[in-house]
Design goal:
The complex is a heterodimer of chains A (139) and B (1104). By secondary structure, chain A is α/β, with parallel strands linked by helices. Helix content of chain A is 43%, strand content 17%. A four-stranded parallel β-sheet of chain A has the order 2-1-3-4, sandwiched between helices. In chain B, 30% of the residues lie in helices and 21% in strands. Classes of the chains: A alpha/beta (139), B alpha/beta (1104).
């Protein structure tokens, strides 16, 4: 990270079965992606409480990426549907709080999609870099 | 504060190359709570693990973070290491700095910094981790295997052989699945029956296997170690404990249906054993419910039953069956309006069966036994000897009541003898039924008019019950001027005179007014008396209530019908001379649903007449019954719908006296109903309301049924119809049998009960009901198997239209020594030996656009086998195989394929576009992609190598098990490589083609694999569950139950007394969705509580 350029801080909440495994596969395949994201592993994306996301934004995160299994693939039958609904609601609230909803992204990445994981992290990091610091410009 | 140790692995150079492990160690040492940090080349190695054990002990560590690879690989390793250091396994966490860091970044500085953030966030996690103990649950040491094909059989045997009790549930009456249908198996050509039947017998005889065939899973709950299963054991309508499999029933059953085991290439009986080697070797009756004809009959006559018995040539039995529900077989065989025929499913193919005429046939062919009844001393009186009264008498007499029938007229039979003319219903035909009824000891007193000769009260006093069935004899008047002039007659009076043999003379021109059966009868009688007859009816032909076939006969006999005409006045001095009529037009529908006729103004016209016969309905005469009898505004008696009892207790009524003028069969039904009610009332039993479950053939069966016209009833020519000879002449035996054979056997079993008469062990149980059985099991193997792709969807290959285009499974049966052709290759159409057979591979498979995308895997090999076996059976036969690719991956498979080509099978690489028939020859149109040419092959037979799809109906079991399927509806394994027999739900294992197309050796291997996985669970006394479940802080819980709704495992329940949620820890799988949903923070997932997540987030974001 060189001086002067903005390096966003990103938190990743990933389910153990799909997206975290996809990150493992990206590693095994030596796919490179930016290092701005720190992953936190849950059993299921449905464990993600909107408060955890707000807590991340409050503590300096410029972006939050939630990763779960594709619909129909959830290890816990339907956890990802619950996540989808919660994130949809939170997206509305974020705008009201003055946080651009682009800063919160929900992606379904299966254990087989290491390549896609890399692409998603790259794209999301670029997007947040373009948006700039949440603390700096408030959006 | 907790003393935390951090151990950083170099993973050779995998981590150390990109992450500065030394700097990282120094940096993390300074992090709050970290009292010890160390790095090592291979932390997972023995010396590496010892470093951790030593440090835990020496540094008195409370928690450990191992920064290395993915926890998927080594979490278990390092948690075991912690335990060796006497530290609880759940205070050890892994930080993934390899897959998530060193392998995906190049910049050493950046990677080291990220690794630091990852590690410290896990340090924050372990700081709040609690020591936990795995949740231990008792294991129910029983297994359930679903599916009795080779996969299920293998799994069940393996589990049972390890000493564990196993329940094997199979949907069909026998185990064996598809494998038992196969002729020989590739590549070794061993006979499927020879290798399969010993296994089937072993299952049946195994003391650890409980075999439940003809059973289905009703419900499954619980989880690994403790599943609760409800099994529905369908009723085979045969007591399997008593059935000895002798097969006598098979010989007498008159109903044939498609033989499923022979893939429809032959037929079987309604009572059947799927195949001779079936296990268990028991018989089952196919019952689909009640046929529409039987439901449509007001008297509930078992129509399908007597029709089936006619086709079997059992006329005596047919007549007995008919008379179980209706004593008036001879009468109804002639004059019934047969509502059964209107409902007959055959009508959807061509025309309904001639049911009534067949009934007449059995009366003429059958004889009846006269049972000698021993009177039970209870006396019943019946008033009126029409079909209603005599039916009631008959059904009561059969139950040993002493019945006396009082008839006011001198003749017996009511409207049958008084109203219906002889050319439709000869007196001898009525006598046939009356004699039959009398044979049960029914006493009939004629010339006794109740209300005159004897009072109703006398009957009430002297008899236990009275049934009134006095018909409807009061004729309705036209109420027009001139109705009372001489020459104006009323229908029933007229018919009665003629029928009783009184001399009646009519003039030349006779007009009959009315559109019912009585009007048509009167007209036809008048015609026979020499008059020119015109019927005037006020509505159109469509609304005419008379039976259409009677109207046709009347017209054929030269009777004119004027529709939309009503009389307004009759002119004449003393005698009728002229009738004035009005034209009508139809308006809106009235109460009866028929369009109301409205007179057209100024349309009056006159017809010269010598006689007019008014036939516009009748009503009952009931003024002889006192006020205590409820009467309707139509002048009929009020009765209870269910029993037929009048408003006077013990007095019942039925027939036209209740309904107004109606049909014979409805009167029979009313008499029957009252007889049942009287018997029930005297014996103090309740009458169960009959519930009918209508059975109609599948649309596919209707489509496939070949058209055959309905038998024509031979009749007198119109020239022969001068006198009162019966017009209809009846069927001969040949016609009757042919007509009976048109029956589609809607309900399959017709309940003729012939099987009961021959079953020596008395095993037939037509009333046997399904049973629900409950089981507790610890593990489940799902082996629901496969079906072939529906050939109907491959229209271009001519299946269903060209009889010699068969499916691969049909060809297996043709090849099988136990099959319909005893192993000789014969064409289904004409039984000839096919000299050339075209085999079409990938029929339905590998066709992403139109059919199945996937390869069905076994078809290449079984087609090769088919070609070889065909060559072996027909030496000069010519097998031609169209293929896309030939896939022969398997031990000995390529060698087998080489043998097939060496022995003369021709392989053409290309797809078939069309199979069609030209002048009786089958033409296959395809491409040869190697030569790039179109090919046209003339052939004697075509075999479609159909693709493999999951068993029809298995989706229901899958839904109940809550396991997952892939995009093609095959069962999903937990991991495509490493967990091929596990489902994604712990404790449920997969075997066989339900998981994907596979051949027998693969199925057996997988079944044994699934069995060993199940055994692995079932040999344990307790099963350990991850303790990272979500609990409840009862102080915070408000009982809002939001968590109860989100839990996918029903692990959370509201305790309504304490108003807090309780958790069944054994059911919780630890997804944590309740924790996210809980508004008060009472639901917290252990070792992943909100506070931990917040601290991890903070730490991951903090620069230092």
């Amino acid at each position: 990270m060189s001086e002067g350029t903005f390096e966003p801080k990103i938190i990743g909440f990933f389910c153990k079965w799909c997206t975290s495994a996809a990150a493992d596969l990206a590693g095994t395949s030596r796919k490179k992606y930016p290092a701005n994201l720190i992953p936190i592993r849950f059993f299921c994306s449905s464990r993600v409480d909107p408060q955890h996301i707000l807590h991340a934004f409050k503590n300096g995160a410029d972006g939050v990426l939630i990763g779960g299994c594709h619909f129909g693939d959830c290890h816990y039958q339907n956890g990802n549907y619950k996540t989808a609904r919660r994130i949809a609601l939170l997206h509305n609230l974020l705008e009201d709080m003055g946080i651009s909803k682009q800063r919160l992204r929900l992606e379904w990445i299966s254990a087989a999609e290491g390549d896609r994981f890399t692409k998603v992290v790259k794209a999301f990091t670029d997007e947040i870099t373009n948006l700039g610091s949440l603390k700096g410009n408030g959006a | 504060m907790k003393r935390i140790g951090v151990f950083i692995c170099h993973c050779g150079i995998n981590i150390a190359k990109t992450v500065d492990v030394e700097a990282l160690t120094e940096q993390i040492k300074k992090y709050p709570g970290v009292v010890h940090a160390e790095n090592y080349k291979y932390m997972c190695s023995d010396p590496g693990q010892n470093i951790i054990v030593e440090a835990i002990k020496k540094q008195k560590l409370d928690a450990v973070v191992v920064a290395a690879c993915s926890p998927t690989l080594h979490e278990n390793t390092f948690r075991n290491t912690s335990e060796r250091g006497e530290l609880n396994r759940y205070v050890c966490e892994m930080a993934n700095i390899r897959e998530h860091c060193s392998w995906v970044h190049d910049d050493r500085e950046i990677a080291t910094k990220k690794a630091f953030h990852i590690i410290k966030s896990l340090v924050e996690k372990v700081r709040l981790n609690e020591p936990l103990d795995p949740i231990l649950v008792d294991v129910t040491k029983k297994a359930l295997v679903i599916g009795g094909g080779i996969a299920g059989i293998q799994s069940a045997l393996d589990i049972a052989n390890s000493g564990i009790e196993t329940i094997l549930v199979e949907k069909s009456p026998s185990i064996g699945g598809h494998m038992i249908q196969l002729s020989e198996t590739f590549p070794t050509l061993d006979c499927s029956q020879c290798i399969m039947t010993p296994k089937m017998v072993e299952v049946a005889q195994h003391d650890k296997i409980k075999l439940l065939t003809y059973s289905e899973i009703e419900e499954i709950s619980g989880s690994i170690g403790n599943f609760k299963v409800k099994v529905r054991q369908k009723s085979p309508f045969v007591d399997w404990v008593k059935c000895n499999g002798c097969g006598e029933c098979d010989l007498v059953c008159p109903v044939t249906t498609d033989n499923e085991f022979e893939c429809g290439l032959s037929s079987r009986r309604a009572i059947y054993r799927p195949f001779p080697q079936a296990v268990p070797n028991k018989f089952t009756i196919s019952k689909l419910g009640h046929p529409p004809c039987r439901i449509a009959c007001p008297a509930g006559v078992n129509v399908q039953g007597y029709i089936a018995l006619i086709s079997a040539g059992k006329y005596k039995e047919a007549l007995e069956l008919e008379r179980e529900a209706n004593p008036f077989a001879s009468v109804c065989g002639r004059v019934c309006n047969h509502p059964c025929e209107a409902e007959c499913a055959r009508g959807e193919v061509d025309q309904p069966l001639a049911i009534a005429s067949l009934k007449r046939f059995i009366v003429e062919k059958g004889s009846y036994p006269t049972e000698q009844k021993k009177p039970n001393g209870e006396k019943i009186a019946v008033v009126g000897s029409g079909p209603g009264g005599l039916s009631c008498a008959y059904f009561l007499a059969k139950k040993n009541y002493q019945v006396t029938v009082f008839e006011a007229e001198k003749v017996i039979g009511g409207m049958l003898v008084l109203g219906i003319p002889e050319f439709r219903l000869p007196r001898a035909a009525i006598k046939e039924d009356i004699d039959y009824i009398k044979s049960f000891g029914v006493e009939i007193k004629t010339g006794v008019e109740v209300g005159e000769t004897i009072s109703i009260n006398e009957l009430k006093t002297n008899y236990r019950a009275v049934f009134i069935s006095t018909g409807a004899y009061e004729e309705m008047k036209l109420n027009v001027e001139g109705e009372n002039l001489a020459g104006a007659l009323h229908c029933i009076g007229f018919l009665k005179k003629v029928n009783l043999g009184d001399k009646v003379t009519l003039g030349k021109n006779v007009v009959v007014i009315g559109g019912g059966n009585a009007a048509v009868d009167a007209a036809r009688v008048a015609k026979r008396l020499g008059s020119d007859v015109t019927i005037l009816y006020r509505r159109s032909r469509k609304e005419m209530p008379a039976n259409s076939w009677e109207v046709e006969e009347a017209e054929r006999e030269g009777i004119k019908i004027e529709f939309l005409v009503t009389p307004s006045k009759i002119f004449g001095t003393e005698r009728v001379q002229e009738i004035e009529c009005l034209r009508m037009e139809l308006g809106e529908p009235d109460e009866s649903g028929r369009r109301r006729p409205i007179p057209v103004k100024g349309s009056e016209f006159k017809i010269p007449i010598d006689n007019v016969i008014v036939a516009i309905s009748q009503k009952p005469i009931i003024d002889w019954l006192g006020k205590e009898f409820g009467k309707t505004k139509w002048g009929t008696l009020v009765v209870d719908d269910d029993t037929g009892e009048t408003t006077v207790k013990g007095v019942y009524a039925g027939g036209d006296v209740v309904s107004g003028p109606d049909t014979v069969i409805k009167a029979v039904a009313a008499g029957k109903k009252a007889a049942e009610a009287i018997n029930a009332s005297i014996k103090g039993i309740k009458i169960a309301r009959k519930e009918y479950n209508k059975a109609t053939p599948e649309p596919e069966k209707l489509r496939q049924t070949k058209k055959a016209p309905r038998a024509e009833m031979p009749k007198l020519t119109t020239d022969q119809r001068k006198g009162f000879d019966e017009v209809e002449l009846g069927f001969n035996e040949e016609t009757a049998k042919k007509e009976a054979a048109r029956c589609l056997n809607c309900a399959i079993c017709c309940e003729c009960k012939q099987c009961e008469t021959v079953c020596e062990p008395d095993a037939i149980a037509h009333d046997l009901e399904d049973k629900i059985l409950d089981f507790d099991v610890g593990a489940i193997v799902v082996a629901t198997g496969y079906d072939l792709y529906d050939p109907e969807r491959l229209k271009e290959y001519g299946f269903g239209t060209i009889p010699d285009v068969v499916t691969s499974m049909q060809f297996e049966r043709i090849l099988s020594a136990s099959g319909p052709t005893v192993g000789e290759v014969k064409r289904p159409s004409d039984g000839s030996t096919p000299k050339r057979i075209v085999f079409i591979q990938c029929a339905g498979s590998r066709d992403k656009e139109n059919h199945l995308e996937y390869c069905s895997k076994i078809c290449c090999m079984y087609t090769a086998k088919h070609a070889l076996l065909y060559k072996h059976r027909v030496h000069d036969g010519e097998p031609i195989i169209f293929y896309i690719d030939v896939r022969t991956s398997g031990k000995g498979y390529e060698e087998f394929y080489n043998r097939v080509t060496d022995e003369g099978a021709t392989y053409i690489r290309g797809k078939v576009s069309k199979v069609y028939q030209d002048n009786g020859r089958i033409i296959v149109l395809g491409a040869d992609t190697l030569s790039g040419k179109q090919v046209e092959v003339e052939t004697d037979m075509v075999v479609l190598a159909l693709g493999i799809v999951p068993k029809k109906g298995s989706e229901d079991v899958v839904r109940k098990l809550k396991i997952q399927c892939d995009a093609n509806a095959f069962l999903s394994e937990a991991h495509p490589k490493l967990k091929p027999v596990e489902s994604q739900t712990a404790g449920i294992f997969l075997a066989g083609a339900a998981q994907g197309p596979k051949d027998i050796p693969e199925v057996v291997a997988q079944a044994s694999g699934a069995a060993s996985k199940a055994i692995g669970i079932l040999v344990q006394d307790k099963i350990a569950f991850e303790p990272t479940v979500a609990g409840v802080d009862e102080d915070l819980c408000s009982g809002c139950s939001i968590c109860v709704a989100v839990c996918p495992y029903s692990a959370r329940e509201l305790d309504k007394e304490e108003m807090v949620v309780k958790v069944v820890e054994a059911l919780c799988q630890g997804c944590g969705s309740c924790s996210a949903a809980c508004p008060s923070g009472a639901a917290q997932q252990r070792n992943l509580i909100d506070r931990q997540i917040e601290k991890m987030v903070e730490s991951a974001l903090e620069e230092n």
